[in-house]
Amino acid sequence: MADGKKTYFISDLHLGASYIADPKAHERKIVDFLEHIAPDCGRLILLGDILDYWWEYRTVVPRGFTRFFGALGRLADAGVEITWFKGNHDIWIFDYLPREIGLKVHDGAMTATFDGKRFFMEHGDGVGRLPWSFRKLRALFRNRTAQRLYAAIHPRWTIGFAHSWSSRSRKQGGYTPSERAGDNLINFARAYNASHPDGKIDYFIFGHCHILLDQELPEGSRIVILGDWISRFTYAVWDGKTLKTDIFY
Questions:
Q1: What is the pTM (predicted TM-score) of this model?
Q2: Where are the alpha helices (DSSP H) in 38-85?
Q3: Contact 86/66 with Cβ under 8 angstroms?
Q4: Nearest to 183 by CA among 223, 137, 131
Q5: How many Cβ atoms are within 10 Å of 157's Cβ, its own excluded?
Q6: 163 falls in which pLDDT band (50, 70, 90)?
Q7: pLDDT at 164 over 70
Q8: Separation of alpha carbons 88 and 126, rounded Å
Q9: Residues 6+ apart with CB under 8 A from 73
Q10: pLDDT in tens, 170-224
Q11: Which residues touch 132 (CB under 8 Å, ≥6 apart)?
């Protein structure tokens, strides 16, 4: 990455969600953000649930998101390194977006060193203590046989079902974060450092919880949970020396 460029972290955009009141305005705001950061962005980390639902068939992909994908394409063409972490909503990204846009897709946790500091990054749904039912569902969604069976169903049924599920989850509180929403990730970060004394992480970056949290840990690390772009419009940026969170108005 070129000197003077920054690393931006963003998650939980939920583009295409049926509960977004004005989908075009929602997408436009995200595109405005990407255009705003373009001059000094050297690396863009998308930490999952960027799309509320996505499924790639072998020869077709869902409609929509043209302006958003175009903005990512312009960043990639300008040399920005883009990494898209799969979340629990955009699990089924395969080869179309990497090939067409020029980004990298990652599933699971990643550790990386930026400017001498160690970062641990994950969407947030795959670490810590997870309910048994959620672990089983997560494994099912990643099962190749289940994916092939799902792909055999006509999109007119699968897309409607997926958006209905997402909307029902929101109504049942799935997107209403509690005061303790980040506890599982905080506990995971502390346990990770305790089990890796020779490779302590400087910054843990997560999404998923739909809360904005920036907290120092007793072990000397910081944990950042990125909020969302449903109501908070928050992100984090690393300038090579300092990590800070901010709001895009």
A1: 0.89
A2: 66-77
A3: no
A4: 223
A5: 9
A6: low
A7: no
A8: 9
A9: 100, 101, 102
A10: 554 445 566 688 999 999 999 999 999 888 899 999 999 999 999 999 989 999 9
A11: none
Rg (CA), the chain: 18
Residues 6+ apart with CB under 8 A from 112: 118, 119, 121
pLDDT tens string 64-119: 899 999 999 999 999 999 999 999 989 889 999 999 999 999 999 999 999 999 99
Strand partners, 7: 43, 238
Q: Nearest to residue 114, comparing CAs of 223, 224, 8, 234?
A: 8
- Torsion sign over Cα 60, 62, 67, 73: negative
CA pair distance 146, 52, nearest whole angstrom: 20
**Any idea which residue has 């972490």 for tokens?**
85
Characterize the bridge pairing of strands 6-10 and 234-238: antiparallel
With contact defined as beta carbons under 8 Å apart, do 207 and 124 qualify? Answer: yes
